[in-house]
Design a protein that fits this description.
Layout (H helix, E strand, L loop, with lengths): L1 H18 L5 H37 L22 H5 L12 E5 L5 E5 L15 H11 L28 H11 L5 H7 L21 H7 L8 H7 L10 H16 L16 H7 L4 H7 L6 E3 L13 E3 L27 H28 L8 H8 L4 H22 L14 H7 L6 H4 L3 H4 L42 E2 L28 H8 L6 E6 L1 H13 L20 H4 L7 E2 L18 E2 L17 E2 L8 H4 L3 H7 L30 H4 L17 H24 L5 H36 L23 H5 L12 E2 L13 E2 L8 H4 L5 H11 L1 E3 L7 H4 L15 H11 L5 H7 L17 H10 L8 H7 L10 H16 L16 H7 L4 H8 L5 E2 L15 E2 L16 E4 L2 E4 L3 E5 L2 E6 L2 E6 L5 H7 L2 H6 L1 H6 L1 H5 L2
Antiparallel strand pairs: 1-2, 3-4, 5-9, 6-12, 7-8, 10-11, 13-14, 15-16, 17-18, 18-19
Helix pairs in contact: 1-2, 2-9, 12-14, 18-30, 18-32, 19-24, 24-25, 24-28, 24-36, 25-34
């Protein structure tokens, strides 16, 4: 162990040196020492101490480690010195664990036994090759002796030299040492630990182990009061869940408490200046003894996660040292010293100059771009270009942000290149990675405001769509529509119209703006369409387990979290980036997708000989600081049903009926509560076929993208209005605003419960749900809210990870009746983009049959293959061949546009081994998938994130593979932990009452469909899984758990057993029970009865006999009557 921890120090020093090459030897030594001590503390208290003393002692003594953040338990008055009883008795228990012999196990697990006595004070064995590793294998796989009144015979002859009679009895010496140190006897320490008193030897029988002979104690000691603490402590039966008996567990835990609370340098403390940062503590918390052993041995390849427990095949199976998901290696990144890079020699005057030059450059670009667009022949007929551009249209607020970002883009370019700057204004010669970090830190707030008048185009809206009141009202239990003030300390966290965050630094070709187009080998990356053809070709295979609803719910969830609009030209003009040279001839925001000569569907050239490309416009600029290009999310990041309610006050107002708390709707006769009709969809193809079939309006303008999505939108609208109607019935004095906000609040909570309880476990599997802390609680409140946490959607989630559902899409959506029987006129996806006509088809069951088809038909299998309907015909012009887009190609191109790093970088980020060759990918992929990637790419580091994660095989019990599960888990964890309004929150100002939360936890998508569908009569409990004859057998809707909305009845009194208790008052409900009426409902407690005779005088015998609380307390008295 000494050797292993010495090696650990040196390993830490090496890693620190790699990230801080400017540190000298002293700095490296002290920091490595500080970290190694912290890791030693963490392993001791996180892994060893719980085994020795048990969880109960951890709780009683308050020595359980923090899961996150800092510990505030340091006490300046506590002396951390080792206590006498710990040093001379309790801490010596380990001597009884030692075996007489130990074995050296080689890497083939062949053993060679050695006598322990032979190697006392003789480290010669350690000098032999492989013996340290062999010894560690023995320690990891051999059971210990249990603590008790026994010891190895060798300890009685310890340190005996060859051919000499003198030796040492170590156990006797420990007993003698306790007497020498004046330790009180065993029974005194039991009193110290507040344990049951012992007054005789006989009383020890129930305390000591059955194997202990009490008569031996009677013979050795005159009185129980004489028993030595070391002997008595080892004799005790172990406490439950503990290796030690109650007395030693208490003494050991007491010492650990003193050690922890009396140490100013304890690794979890926030005492300045010795405190670690939160990120550094999080890194230390990853430390395990298993990882320490893995990192500091040569031939130990597998170690069980809990190194202090024996390995088994279930909860503690040996893991490969190359597996970094559970036994994670130390990452020194958070210990990188960047103090020297926090400032730049740049003045306010220089900043004003570069922004002024940037403004002029942007104005020149926009004028030229406007002329080029005007010279184009406009085509306003339905097409993939038009549909996609309208679907990804920026809102006015987004366009305003983009203008500022465009100027800052030009200003950044001027700063980096030095063009137009004097010698003393230019930046020092720094690498791209450094500039990426420090340019955004430059304060431009006092400067950019001077240029705002030159950027604004439109007058401010008369109606305030994005109110940002300060200070935040922490007492309001209703979310704002934009996400403002969800986080009271950082009101903008997770807001609509903010830039996305990055898990890894951007990978732009120039470090700042140019899309990722170059291979690590220097050549050009393959076309996104070529990769799609090789990796994502259609291979029809249906999933046997999951329904098509899994995909459909995932899409509306995606639309609830993220919408990154694409760039427009001057005056909000759509950019036609279909020409292969459009980036040079039309707009710098064009990034068309090249069609290769061997493309199996699209000709490489037009009829006139021009090369063919798919149109692709880059995402709208959004960075509001100097530095690299960033993109915008014009929705809130939170899971707040913005698809239903919108992301601004103005959008929400347009969706409301402003009567009885309801959302606006359309009565179609056959669908009496359809979505409202309107002109939100500017490419409404159903309207071209029939003027009566207008497109629908919702909180997210993509509602008409395809009929399955429209049906789910309609379902949630109906659920909101169903809730509002019931709340109006039980609280008829509530205003429209109160009814609307409370219905919205309940609907959002149900959505979150369905996500985390039903949908996400299917996608991630139980292991990843557990790893990321995503499972909802079965009772009580969630206490994990972190006000330092930012819920903002990551680039990786938006551009790649949450597009995994594209693999699940069917080319034809089934229609089914109420018996799950197929109906005619299934929905052909190719014909229904931006076309909700099937929802109007009364004879084919309109939205009802589509809804039943989603839960009765299976999805496509999750794999790298994607159906032709979206790979060749996405948004294709009706009746027009070769006019569609390729969805996986768009996904790949979008990640390159956003500067997202390649797949291999995220393998490493997620704890997998970074691949050096394509063959290294076989740990997560099939041979066929690896072959496809190797055919498409020149180097393993070139693989784009989307095709990489889609090529992984699912992990056990999950839909998706490990890297994809990691990226989704990371995001969903933040959407839970960073949301002050998360439905299980314990925040007294915004939480549901305990009774209400119990009801919310009953919510399921199956019940929601039952409550809002005419066809749903019998339905499987989990609609994301195919119905079967056993666990998910269809049942009557009446048998599914139903939310009791009566828990939201609003009265200034409580009803308890038909008795009225006014709010704030307490009333005796039965002779032995009182209830208090609180804001969260009645709280009742039993009364302690001191005088049963008086109780009988105050209450009738019959009332007392009906009250079980009375009967329990006064049973003897009542028997006498």
């Amino acid at each position: 162990m000494y050797t292993i921890w010495m090696r650990q120090h040196n390993l830490i020093a090496e890693k620190l040196s790699s990230v801080n090459p400017h540190w000298d030897d002293q700095k490296l030594f002290e920091e490595a020492r500080r970290i190694t001590i912290a890791q030693f503390q963490h392993v001791t208290f996180n892994e060893m101490v719980p085994v020795l003393v048990g969880k109960e002692q951890l709780r009683v003594m308050g020595i359980k480690l923090q899961n996150n953040g800092y510990d505030s338990g340091y006490d300046i008055n506590i002396d951390a010195s080792a206590s006498n009883v710990f040093a001379a008795a309790a801490g010596q228990f380990f001597l009884t664990l030692l075996p007489s012999k130990f074995s050296i196990e080689d890497k083939k697990f062949q053993t060679r036994s050695e006598s322990l006595l032979k190697h006392f004070n003789d480290p010669a064995l350690i000098y032999e090759k492989g013996k340290i590793d062999g010894m560690l294998r023995f320690l990891l796989n051999a059971p210990i002796e249990k603590p008790g009144l026994h010891s190895s015979p060798l300890l009685k002859t310890a340190f005996q030299k060859k051919d000499e009679a003198d030796s040492v009895d170590i156990i006797a010496m420990v007993i003698q040492m306790g007497r020498d140190h004046g330790l009180p006897s065993y029974l005194n320490w039991r009193k110290f630990c507040k344990l049951e008193e012992v007054n005789s030897f006989l009383a020890l029988q129930s305390i000591f182990k059955p194997s202990v002979n009490i008569s031996d104690f009677e013979r050795l000691y005159e009185s129980p009061e004489d028993i030595d603490v070391f002997v008595g402590g080892l004799s005790e039966q172990p406490a439950k869940g503990s290796l030690l008996g109650p007395t030693f567990a208490c003494l050991f835990a007491h010492q650990m408490t003193q050690t922890k609370r009396g140490d100013r340098f304890w690794y979890e403390n926030f005492v300045s200046p010795s405190a670690f940062t939160v990120q550094q503590i999080d890194e230390i918390r990853k430390t395990t003894m298993a990882r320490i052993i893995c990192d500091n041995t040569d031939t130990v390849t597998h170690v069980q996660h809990h190194a202090f427990s024996l390995p088994d095949d279930y909860g503690n199976c040996p893991l490969s040292c190359n597996s970094t998901g559970i036994i994670q290696p130390f990452n020194a990144k958070s210990f990188k010293d960047e103090e020297k890079l926090t400032t730049l020699p740049i003045t306010k005057e220089t900043i004003e100059k570069v922004i002024r030059l940037g403004l002029k450059q942007w104005q020149r670009y926009e004028e030229g771009e406007g002329r080029r667009i005007s010279a184009q022949i406009a085509d306003t007929s339905p097409s993939a270009l038009l549909s996609h551009a309208l679907l990804m249209a920026p809102k006015k607020e987004s366009i305003d942000i983009a203008r500022t970002a465009s100027v800052l883009r030009e200003a950044t370019n001027i700063l980096v290149t030095g063009n137009g700057l004097n010698k003393d204004e230019k930046l020092p010669d720094l690498d791209v990675a450094t500039l990426q970090k420090i340019l955004p830190q430059i304060d431009i707030g006092s400067v950019i405001g001077n240029f705002t008048p030159f950027l604004a185009r439109d007058p401010l809206p008369k109606e305030q769509c994005l109110p940002e009141p300060l200070p935040c009202d922490h007492t309001s239990k209703y979310r704002s529509y934009s996400g403002w003030c969800n986080n009271l300390k950082n009101p903008k966290f997770g807001n609509a119209f903010t830039q996305m965050r990055r898990l890894l630094d951007p990978a732009y070709d120039d470090g700042f703006d140019t899309p990722r187009t170059r291979s690590v080998l220097g050549s050009e990356l393959p076309s996104a369409r070529k990769i799609s053809n090789i990796v994502h070709s259609d291979a029809p295979k249906f999933h046997v387990k999951f329904t098509h609803m899994l995909m459909q719910f995932g899409q509306i969830l995606d639309h609830d979290m993220m919408h990154s609009p694409i760039s427009r030209g001057p005056k909000n003009t759509i950019l036609n980036c279909s020409s292969c040279d459009s980036a040079q001839t039309l707009s710098i925001h064009c990034f068309p997708i090249k069609i290769e000569p061997d493309d199996p569907f699209f000709p490489a050239k037009h009829n006139d000989g021009r090369p063919r490309c798919m149109p692709f416009a880059r995402s709208l600029l959004a960075q509001v600081s100097l530095g690299y290009r960033n993109q915008l999310n014009q929705l809130t990041s939170f899971l707040d049903a913005s698809t239903i309610y919108g992301s601004t006050q103005c959008e929400a107002n347009k969706l409301r009926l402003f009567s009885d708390g309801k959302l606006n709707f359309t009565d179609l006769g056959f669908n009496k509560e359809a979505l409202p009709q309107g002109n939100q969809e500017r490419d409404c193809r159903s309207n071209l076929q029939n003027r009566q079939r207008k497109c629908f309006v919702a909180g997210d303008e993509r509602v008409n993208e395809q009929p399955g999505l429209t049906a789910i939108h309609n379902l949630f609208l109906r659920e909101h209005n169903r809730i509002a109607r019931y709340l109006k019935q039980i609280n008829n004095f509530w205003t429209d605003e109160k009814l609307f906000q409370e219905s919205r609040r309940i609907n959002i909570a149900q959505l979150q419960n369905i996500i985390y309880k039903e949908w996400l476990p299917v996608v991630l599997g139980c292991q990843h749900m557990e790893k990321w802390g995503l499972m909802p609680q079965t009772s009580g409140y969630f206490e994990g809210y972190d006000d330092q946490c930012d819920a903002t959607i990551s680039q990786e989630m938006s551009t790649s990870a949450f597009r995994f559902g594209h693999s699940l899409i069917r080319g034809v959506f089934s229609r089914m009746n109420d018996q799950f029987q197929n109906m005619t006129n299934h929905v052909n996806l190719t014909e229904t983009f931006s076309n909700p006509s099937p929802v109007y088809d009364k004879n084919s069951g309109h939205m009802e049959s589509i809804l039943m088809g989603l839960i009765g038909a299976s999805s496509m299998a999750f794999d790298r293959h994607i159906v032709t309907a979206v790979r060749n015909h996405l948004f294709a012009k009706p009746g027009g061949p070769l006019t569609g887009l390729d969805l996986p190609a768009v996904n790949i191109q979008r990640a390159r546009d956003h500067g997202v790093q390649g797949y291999n970088a995220y393998r490493k980020y997620c704890g997998l081994r970074k691949a050096s060759t394509f063959s290294d990918l076989r740990d997560t992929m099939t041979s066929e998938a690896v072959t496809a990637l190797e055919t498409a790419y020149s180097h393993v580091d070139d693989i784009d994130l989307f095709p990489g994660i889609m090529s992984e095989s699912p992990t056990r019990g999950a839909l998706v593979g490990p890297t994809l599960a990691c990226l989704i888990g990371e995001q969903m964890q933040r959407l839970k932990k960073c949301d002050r309004f998360y439905y299980e929150t314990n925040d007294a100002m915004v939480r549901f009452t305990p009774d209400q939360l119990v009801e919310i936890r009953k919510a399921s998508l199956s019940r929601m469909i039952c409550d809002n569908s005419e066809y749903a009569v019998n339905i499987q409990p989990n609609v994301f899984l195919m119905p079967d004859d056993l666990a998910n057998s269809p049942m009557s809707c009446s048998e599914l758990p139903e939310i009791d909305l009566n828990k939201w009845v609003d009265r200034d009194y409580c009803l308890v057993d038909e008795r009225v208790v006014n709010r704030g008052k307490t009333k005796r409900i039965t002779p032995c029970v009182t209830c208090t009426c609180t804001l969260e409902g009645p709280e009742c407690h039993s009364i302690t009865i001191d005088d049963c005779s008086r109780l009988l005088r105050d209450y009738s015998l019959s009332d007392i006999q009906k009250d079980s609380v009375c009967l329990i307390q006064c049973s003897q008295h009542l028997k006498k009557l």
